[in-house]
Design a protein that fits this description.
Layout lengths: L1 H8 L1 H21 L24 H15 L6
Length: about 80
Amino acid sequence: MNLIRIAIDRPIAVVAAVLIALLFGAIALSRIPIQLAPDVRKPIVVVETEWPGAAPSEIEREIVNLQEEALRGLEG
């Protein structure tokens, strides 16, 4: 009951305490990182093959077919 009596006798102190609590809450909310949502981006694999001066059929036979076999286990 003593706390209630002090709050009734000093309303300005109660308002100041509430404002300080709101200020600290706003500062904490702006500085604490929120990690509730996971990163849901799909991973992307990009493979570039360069062989200057080679014909497309040579690149396919010598390089691309081997790459496709090596990467066959990847989903998507």
